[in-house]
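Minutes, structural biology subgroup

Action item carried over from last meeting: produce the C-alpha coordinate record for Translin (Semnornis frantzii). EB confirmed the sequence was re-checked against the source entry. Recorded below for completeness.
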Amino acid sequence: QEIRKVVQVLEQTAREILTLLQGVHQGAGFQDIPKKCQKAREHFSAVRTQMESLKTKFPADQYYRFHEHWRFVLQRLVFLAAFVVYLESEALVTREAVAEILGIEADRERGFHLDIEDYLSGVLTLASELARLAVNSVTAGDYSRPLRISTFINELDSGFRLLNLKNDSLRKRYDGLKYDVKKIEEVVYDLSIRGLNKETTAAAGAEK
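Output recorded by EB:
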Protein backbone atom coordinates (compact mmCIF):
# COMPACT_ATOMS: atom_id res chain seq x y z
CA GLN A 1 0.00 0.00 0.00
CA GLU A 2 2.80 2.41 0.95
CA ILE A 3 4.71 1.57 -2.24
CA ARG A 4 1.58 2.12 -4.32
CA LYS A 5 1.05 5.59 -2.85
CA VAL A 6 4.58 6.74 -3.77
CA VAL A 7 4.28 5.17 -7.24
CA GLN A 8 1.05 7.14 -7.85
CA VAL A 9 2.88 10.38 -7.00
CA LEU A 10 5.72 9.38 -9.36
CA GLU A 11 3.19 8.68 -12.11
CA GLN A 12 1.69 12.14 -11.63
CA THR A 13 5.13 13.78 -11.88
CA ALA A 14 5.89 11.71 -15.00
CA ARG A 15 2.61 12.93 -16.56
CA GLU A 16 3.57 16.54 -15.82
CA ILE A 17 6.99 16.10 -17.47
CA LEU A 18 5.41 14.38 -20.48
CA THR A 19 2.82 17.16 -20.91
CA LEU A 20 5.63 19.72 -20.79
CA LEU A 21 7.79 17.90 -23.36
CA GLN A 22 4.87 17.22 -25.72
CA GLY A 23 4.95 20.94 -26.42
CA VAL A 24 8.03 20.45 -28.61
CA HIS A 25 5.78 18.82 -31.22
CA GLN A 26 3.87 22.07 -31.76
CA GLY A 27 5.12 24.49 -34.42
CA ALA A 28 6.24 27.19 -31.97
CA GLY A 29 7.64 24.54 -29.62
CA PHE A 30 10.85 24.20 -31.61
CA GLN A 31 12.04 27.64 -30.50
CA ASP A 32 11.25 26.75 -26.91
CA ILE A 33 13.18 23.47 -26.64
CA PRO A 34 15.93 24.71 -24.24
CA LYS A 35 13.32 26.29 -21.94
CA LYS A 36 11.18 23.13 -21.93
CA CYS A 37 14.22 20.96 -21.14
CA GLN A 38 15.19 23.26 -18.27
CA LYS A 39 11.66 23.05 -16.80
CA ALA A 40 11.65 19.26 -17.21
CA ARG A 41 14.95 19.04 -15.31
CA GLU A 42 13.36 21.01 -12.48
CA HIS A 43 10.58 18.40 -12.32
CA PHE A 44 13.21 15.66 -12.08
CA SER A 45 14.31 17.09 -8.72
CA ALA A 46 10.81 16.12 -7.47
CA VAL A 47 11.33 12.64 -8.97
CA ARG A 48 14.57 12.25 -6.98
CA THR A 49 12.78 13.17 -3.75
CA GLN A 50 9.98 10.70 -4.54
CA MET A 51 12.51 7.98 -5.32
CA GLU A 52 14.16 8.57 -1.93
CA SER A 53 10.77 8.02 -0.33
CA LEU A 54 10.15 4.85 -2.37
CA LYS A 55 13.47 3.34 -1.26
CA THR A 56 12.33 3.46 2.37
CA LYS A 57 9.14 1.45 1.75
CA PHE A 58 10.68 -2.02 1.40
CA PRO A 59 13.84 -3.93 2.43
CA ALA A 60 16.74 -3.17 0.07
CA ASP A 61 17.33 -6.84 -0.72
CA GLN A 62 13.72 -7.33 -1.93
CA TYR A 63 13.90 -5.06 -4.99
CA TYR A 64 12.69 -7.69 -7.45
CA ARG A 65 9.89 -8.87 -5.17
CA PHE A 66 8.20 -5.47 -5.53
CA HIS A 67 9.67 -4.48 -8.93
CA GLU A 68 6.33 -4.88 -10.77
CA HIS A 69 4.87 -2.01 -8.75
CA TRP A 70 7.21 0.62 -10.17
CA ARG A 71 8.47 -1.03 -13.37
CA PHE A 72 6.10 0.82 -15.70
CA VAL A 73 6.61 4.28 -14.18
CA LEU A 74 10.39 3.75 -14.08
CA GLN A 75 10.42 2.91 -17.81
CA ARG A 76 8.34 6.02 -18.48
CA LEU A 77 10.79 8.16 -16.48
CA VAL A 78 13.75 6.63 -18.36
CA PHE A 79 12.09 7.62 -21.64
CA LEU A 80 11.47 11.18 -20.38
CA ALA A 81 15.07 11.56 -19.18
CA ALA A 82 16.33 10.16 -22.49
CA PHE A 83 14.09 12.57 -24.42
CA VAL A 84 15.36 15.59 -22.46
CA VAL A 85 18.99 14.56 -23.03
CA TYR A 86 18.32 13.98 -26.74
CA LEU A 87 16.66 17.39 -27.14
CA GLU A 88 19.60 19.04 -25.37
CA SER A 89 22.48 17.25 -27.11
CA GLU A 90 21.03 14.87 -29.76
CA ALA A 91 22.93 12.08 -27.97
CA LEU A 92 21.78 8.85 -26.37
CA VAL A 93 21.71 9.01 -22.59
CA THR A 94 23.67 6.29 -20.80
CA ARG A 95 22.12 4.08 -18.14
CA GLU A 96 24.44 5.66 -15.56
CA ALA A 97 23.31 9.17 -16.54
CA VAL A 98 19.61 8.20 -16.33
CA ALA A 99 20.17 6.65 -12.91
CA GLU A 100 21.77 9.92 -11.79
CA ILE A 101 18.89 12.02 -13.17
CA LEU A 102 16.40 9.80 -11.30
CA GLY A 103 18.44 9.69 -8.10
CA ILE A 104 18.93 5.91 -8.10
CA GLU A 105 21.84 3.51 -8.60
CA ALA A 106 23.12 2.04 -11.86
CA ASP A 107 24.60 -1.03 -10.12
CA ARG A 108 22.35 -3.74 -8.75
CA GLU A 109 24.70 -4.37 -5.82
CA ARG A 110 24.20 -0.85 -4.51
CA GLY A 111 20.47 -1.14 -3.78
CA PHE A 112 17.57 0.53 -5.60
CA HIS A 113 18.85 0.55 -9.16
CA LEU A 114 17.90 0.99 -12.78
CA ASP A 115 17.38 -2.48 -14.23
CA ILE A 116 18.96 -2.87 -17.69
CA GLU A 117 15.66 -3.98 -19.26
CA ASP A 118 13.82 -0.95 -17.84
CA TYR A 119 16.52 1.26 -19.37
CA LEU A 120 16.23 -0.44 -22.77
CA SER A 121 12.41 -0.19 -22.73
CA GLY A 122 12.63 3.53 -22.05
CA VAL A 123 15.09 3.99 -24.91
CA LEU A 124 12.74 2.15 -27.30
CA THR A 125 9.92 4.52 -26.30
CA LEU A 126 12.27 7.39 -27.18
CA ALA A 127 12.61 5.96 -30.71
CA SER A 128 8.81 6.18 -31.23
CA GLU A 129 8.77 9.73 -29.92
CA LEU A 130 11.58 10.74 -32.29
CA ALA A 131 9.74 9.20 -35.25
CA ARG A 132 6.84 11.51 -34.38
CA LEU A 133 9.22 14.45 -33.94
CA ALA A 134 10.69 13.83 -37.41
CA VAL A 135 7.23 14.17 -39.00
CA ASN A 136 6.36 17.28 -36.97
CA SER A 137 9.73 18.87 -37.75
CA VAL A 138 8.82 18.91 -41.44
CA THR A 139 5.48 20.53 -40.65
CA ALA A 140 7.34 23.19 -38.64
CA GLY A 141 9.72 23.81 -41.58
CA ASP A 142 12.76 22.25 -39.89
CA TYR A 143 14.07 20.02 -42.68
CA SER A 144 17.48 19.14 -41.25
CA ARG A 145 16.21 17.62 -37.99
CA PRO A 146 14.66 14.50 -39.61
CA LEU A 147 18.04 13.70 -41.22
CA ARG A 148 19.77 13.90 -37.83
CA ILE A 149 17.02 11.84 -36.21
CA SER A 150 17.38 9.25 -38.98
CA THR A 151 21.13 8.90 -38.31
CA PHE A 152 20.51 8.59 -34.56
CA ILE A 153 17.73 5.98 -34.92
CA ASN A 154 19.78 3.89 -37.36
CA GLU A 155 22.68 3.83 -34.89
CA LEU A 156 20.24 2.87 -32.14
CA ASP A 157 18.84 0.07 -34.29
CA SER A 158 22.37 -1.21 -34.99
CA GLY A 159 23.05 -1.27 -31.25
CA PHE A 160 19.89 -3.24 -30.49
CA ARG A 161 20.74 -5.77 -33.21
CA LEU A 162 23.83 -6.71 -31.19
CA LEU A 163 21.70 -7.65 -28.18
CA ASN A 164 20.27 -11.08 -27.52
CA LEU A 165 16.85 -10.04 -26.22
CA LYS A 166 15.29 -12.83 -24.18
CA ASN A 167 12.61 -10.75 -22.44
CA ASP A 168 9.34 -11.13 -24.38
CA SER A 169 7.92 -7.66 -23.75
CA LEU A 170 11.28 -6.07 -24.62
CA ARG A 171 11.47 -8.19 -27.76
CA LYS A 172 8.02 -6.95 -28.83
CA ARG A 173 9.04 -3.37 -28.14
CA TYR A 174 12.18 -3.86 -30.22
CA ASP A 175 10.04 -5.14 -33.12
CA GLY A 176 8.36 -1.73 -33.06
CA LEU A 177 11.72 -0.05 -33.65
CA LYS A 178 11.68 -1.41 -37.23
CA TYR A 179 8.50 0.59 -37.89
CA ASP A 180 10.03 3.72 -36.37
CA VAL A 181 13.09 3.34 -38.63
CA LYS A 182 10.80 2.88 -41.66
CA LYS A 183 8.64 5.87 -40.73
CA ILE A 184 11.67 8.15 -40.43
CA GLU A 185 13.17 6.82 -43.68
CA GLU A 186 9.92 7.73 -45.44
CA VAL A 187 10.13 11.28 -44.09
CA VAL A 188 13.75 11.61 -45.26
CA TYR A 189 12.88 10.10 -48.66
CA ASP A 190 9.99 12.53 -49.04
CA LEU A 191 12.33 15.44 -48.28
CA SER A 192 14.86 14.23 -50.85
CA ILE A 193 12.13 13.83 -53.52
CA ARG A 194 11.12 17.44 -52.93
CA GLY A 195 14.77 18.51 -52.92
CA LEU A 196 14.41 19.93 -49.42
CA ASN A 197 17.21 17.93 -47.82
CA LYS A 198 19.69 19.30 -50.40
CA GLU A 199 18.93 22.79 -49.16
CA THR A 200 19.53 21.81 -45.54
CA THR A 201 22.70 19.88 -46.38
CA ALA A 202 24.02 22.87 -48.34
CA ALA A 203 23.13 25.25 -45.50
CA ALA A 204 24.89 23.00 -42.98
CA GLY A 205 27.95 22.88 -45.23
CA ALA A 206 27.96 26.67 -45.56
CA GLU A 207 27.83 27.04 -41.76
CA LYS A 208 30.90 24.83 -41.36
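Discussion: The chain has a mean pLDDT of 89.
Next step: EB to file the record with the rest of the batch.
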